[in-house]
Amino acid sequence: MSEAVKGPASYFPAIEKKYGRPVAEWKKLIRSSPLTRHMELVTWLKTEHGMGHGHANALVAHTLAEDSRG
């Protein structure tokens, strides 16, 4: 039996379905943005890409966590 996905990644299937782009593409957009602070990136996804707060927050949190690991 597989373990349920938890944390920000649990939003990924809904994000892909609702916004029509794979998560990898959203992460690439986040990484290419000149913005670096968490809430700046969340606000940018919401205003420029029409994303809801929870989805934007999950993508940014997951992307920044990956990048900080190294």
UniProtKB/TrEMBL annotation:
Domain of life: Bacteria
InterPro entries reported in the protein's UniProt record: DUF4287
This protein's name: DUF4287 domain-containing protein
Organism, as annotated: Streptomyces gilvifuscus
